[in-house]
Amino acid sequence: MFAWQTPLTTAWQDSLTSSTRMHVVGIDRLVLTGATGFIGGTVLVTLMNAGLIERLVCLVRAANAAEALVRLRASAVRCGLPHTRSQRLTEANVIVGDLGDDFTEADLARLAGASHVINCAAMTSFSTNPQVLAINVRDTLRFASHFIDRQTFKRFLHVSTAMACGTQCSTVVRESAFGFSETNHLVPYTRSKRDVERLLRLYYPTLPLVVVRPSIVVGHTVLGTLPSASIFWVFRVVHGARRFSAKAMTRLDVVSVDDCARALALLAVKPTLAFDTYHVSAGSEAPTIGQIIGAMDEATGISGKRYSICAPRDFRNIARDVVGRRSSGAARLIEHALGLYAGFANLDYQFDNHRLREEIGFEPLPFIDYVSECVRTSRGIGIVEQMRWDFK
């Protein structure tokens, strides 16, 4: 069954524990993509803890199967699996390749034997890199085509992003499929995720598709930032500066990677689902910026001046305070990143998660309850070093 290392609400824990054994019985082979990434690696550990290693196949980019296995084991260990248990992974658990590759006949046969897919693979860059569109749309569609009209295939769970909704929604964003109207986006990444959702439904209407949209995924409730420091460095900057362009009462919809992975795993293996679109989010329980800063004050033992709103033009000075005036390149990168994240924060979105709560009893640990672990695991690590998780 799933192994839990953190205190969970009774409903969430009971939902996971009681349903696991029954659900895994109906899985012939589960294909996981993106298993060397932050979310995908944590899903990998979750599935292994569920006893699915014999039925698990991961698509891994590598020169050969041996290299793919090394990468897969390293990802599992980084995401919390003991090293000794990671050695249970073998070359039987890997298919070498990318989403858009031409697979060998042997690997095509292995894909054809899949009953379930969890597609975590994506290019998550906030840059204008043309590969964002190529990988997240074209290659994803090509990969999904391998599972069309197969009688034994039961579910293609596609991991999207809550911000695929764009910038023109009401404050509460509902869990529903997107229409075909044009929307504005802050970065190409979120547009690509919206586009591929629509195209998967348009091109492959018979695909048993379930779209899951995580909100802001930050840290691990036990491991803190060890699996990935993605985005947490932004909170460190804002906490140190005591200013940002969003109000103190602005809510930030943050979930931990392990709560996200548990939800993805259950939605993938549950025999029947009431809907085909879900948010993995904090929803109405999302903390405010003020609450997050207060929790970080408590975790660090350091409190500064009162938080205040600043103008985007002040981001340059904030960045220089972080890295010093000599590191102009890093300062420009921080300034640019703060501008992007400010754009998301100022939307003040709350991603409704009623469907997920009713479907699997989802009760995520609030960010302010595990931010201390993120702080603890960030001690002695520079902000610029942590930024590398987002700007590789």
Structure in a nutshell:
By secondary structure, the chain is an alpha/beta fold. It contains 15 helices and 13 strands. It has a domain at 17-220 and 253-284 and 349-366: 3-Layer(aba) Sandwich (Rossmann fold), CATH 3.40.50.
Please characterize this protein's 3D structure.
A 7-stranded parallel sheet has the order 3-2-1-4-5-7-11, sandwiched between helices. Strands 6-13 form a two-stranded parallel sheet. The chain has 15 helices and 13 strands. Helix 2 (38-49) links the parallel strand 1 and strand 2. Helix content is 43%, strand content 11%. With 392 residues, it is α/β, with parallel strands linked by helices. The protein has a domain at 17-220 and 253-284 and 349-366: NAD(P)-binding Rossmann-like Domain (Rossmann fold). The chain is globular, with a radius of gyration of 20 Å. Helix 2 crosses helix 9 (257-269) and helix 6 runs parallel beside helix 7 (188-203). The chain has helices at 10-24, 38-49, 65-78, 83-86, 105-112, 131-144, 188-203, 232-241, 257-269, 289-300, 315-323, 328-345, 354-360, 367-376, 383-387; strands at residues 30-33, 56-60, 94-96, 116-119, 155-159, 172-173, 209-214, 216-217, 243-244, 254-255, 277-280, 308-309, 350-351. The model is unreliable at 1-18 (pLDDT under 50). This is Epimerase. Residues 32-263 form the Thioester reductase (TE) domain. It holds the Pfam family NAD_binding_4. It comes from Caballeronia mineralivorans PML1(12). GO terms for molecular function: aldehyde dehydrogenase (NAD+) activity.
